[in-house]
Task: structure prediction
Amino acid sequence: MRFTVLGGVTARVDGHVTEFGPTRPGALLGVLLAGAGQVVSAEDLVERVLGAAPPPRARALMQTWLTRLRQMLPGLIEREGAGYVVRVDPLEIDLHLFRHLVRAGRTADALALAQAEPLSTLDTPWAVQLRADFAAELLAARLAHVDARLEEGRHASLVPELQALAAERPLDERIAAQLIEALHGSGRAPEALRHFEVVRENLRTELGAEPSRHLTTLHRRLQTASAPRQLPAAPKPFTGRATELAELDNVPTGVVVITGTGGVGKTSLAVHWAHRAAERFPDGQLYVNLHGFGPSGAAVSPGDAVLRFLSALDVPRAQVPHDLAGQSALLRDALADKRVLMLLDNATDADQVEPLLPRTPHAHVVITSRTALKPKHAKELPLGLLSPDDARALLTARIGLDRARAEPDAVDTVVRRCARLPLALAVAGARAATQPEFPLAALADELADLDAFADDDDVTADLRSVFSHSCKALSPPALRLFGLFGLMPGSDISHAGAASLAGTAPAETGDLLAELARANLIDEPEPGRFTCHDLLRDYAAELAPDSERDAALHRLLDHLALTAVEAGVAYTPSRHRPATPDSAPGVIVQRFGTHEDALAWLMAEHPTLMAAMPHGTTEQTWLMGWSLADALDRQARYRDLLTSQQLAVAAVEKLGDTDGLGRSLINLGRSLSRVDRPQEAVAALHRALDVYEGNPAGQAGVLLNIAMLCPDDRIEEALEHTRRGLALFEEVGDAYGQANALTGLAWGHGKLGEYALTVEYAERAMRMWQEMDHLIGQAEAWDNLGTGYLGLGEHAQAVRAYTRSSELFRLGGDIPLEAGSYEQLGDTHAAAGDAELARQAWQRSAELRTRAGLSADQVRAKLQAEGQ
Result:
């Protein structure tokens, strides 16, 4: 036998199913099943089935129903004393099976079973209370299931579910803790910490209470875990430099500049000391390799470095100004009360580091450079060659103590011929370590037979000798790949990029990269990305065969340009894919399954793409620029956005590709508007309009972009551009463009107070967005409908519209627009005279704005005014 009380009451006996529906006998059976194993008195049965005021002859009716049930289900219901009981295994009843599964920790199975409320057709007070109790059980089971999935590490998939729960129960601290853990575990630490602040504010406002100890402890733990830890791995082995380490230990907070020639070990010293001193800086350690002495175009700009630091410090992108001065000021504000160590590695000059200096009392900055920088109040720490003893110790650590003791004279010879330079000793030591069967003296003799030394101070000659010696031990394919490394336009390269550069299969390339790493000629600072010291890169460039240079660089640029197009399309699927050439033989073109994967690749390769653009063919350059446009815009990398689009326009002009030129000019106009150059932006867009002469769809897209640049006091002009764009999109049958234009018209008429037109255009746009299944488009249409209905005084319709738009914006992941919908929803409730619902909607808007790093002052002012 099987019985259900969740939803309707049913009985399955010998394969036959009886559905009782909303009948009194069914209600009676459901009451007895809900209390399986318990005797229910006749009086209680009457009250539970018929309510506190039963009709006359209720007991007689009950007896009739009991008789009918006994006939249908013989042996199930028994009389016991003054009451009745069902004799059945409780696990045959879905409600009791649910409870058993929860107790057994099988929450997934329990939740799958609980798809409806118990006795959903019975409305007596007892049934209402039963459902309330079950709702609490169901929530507890759901939260237990969340805990289980959190333990499994399924953080990202839980975020939407927990956000919905938190919105329903903003004062539930268990849900708050789970959401905070899920956000943090899915790499969204800033949102996790902001949600704690939202919950704390809710508790204070609503209950006059502080967060529980559990929630406070979790917050403190995540604060510590969220402190940036950007230092590269500590160098191993590290020997010597006792005097310099002591000097670094004794410097109070401020700025220290470690200077010295290339290869002398400035970075190793700085990173080793930083790890040793990390506990002095509990609020984190920031690191950036500025690549000041790498290939042309590879140096990190001050603006890019500032943005990296602001991101590491969890400063919301929406708060970041567009100009470098504003970004530097924001960085100082973010570090004002923090004990942070900042390591600026490989700086080229004072101009590169000055915008990064925090000038705050608790922050400490260590800079490495080949030149004597002179930041204000900085201490300079010159770094010379290793002492003979320290140089011998470093080489010994590389080759092993037994081998060094066996050939002390050979150790001295290698140390002398490496000029006591750590970089040279590392390369030579790696060479010796890979050939343990060779006498060390033979390797020392090989060094003497190579490039002649000018004198003891000629470091470059010594390094070239050591590099040459190590390269002789490489296999020919590895030596070829090392030489091609010298052609890289950026500071590092991916595995796929290296394979494309060499024109070799990925598996073979992996073996060659491992060989070069064992020889200490390249590093892998993070999984899958490879780089090498700039002196090694300079030497490598000399080894690249002249006959291969152009083809190898073309393959690498092909890989970057064509993979960038794939990433650009995956990142913004609505963009029209540009025509691309066939890739050169040996080029790897990567594909991307998700929006997130595409963005991750674009941002990882963004510095390399920027460095590569000036070296590409005209086609490669414009494709790289097109691919970067949306990602750089949404990531607020506006200077690089402008530079990339200027390069793209210059390249595509040479191709004679009018469509490509039009697109690049639109992107250029957008980038100029982002850096507050509106007149130049408009000029670029008008030029695009001319380029698209005879191309209605192209001109329509330009007109919509021109409309977006119109300020609020020129809405009529914006509407005219949008109407012209709509007519052109209709002419060519471009549904996506038409829906965009209709959305713009709805918004513009709403701004003018022409609400009937707002509704008309929004409804037209809605139908098109729904046909395309375009989530954000539908959300915008609902939002515009809300504006129209509110303006027309149709409050119920406006509430429905804003509720729907906020739901869709949430599903689409657009927090600022979701916050805007909630604010408008609050305005609508207020206009309808419902102060409590208005307060709830405004509170939700304020929470979302806080989470997104946006100002909530306007919404809080409404909350404050409502409370007076």
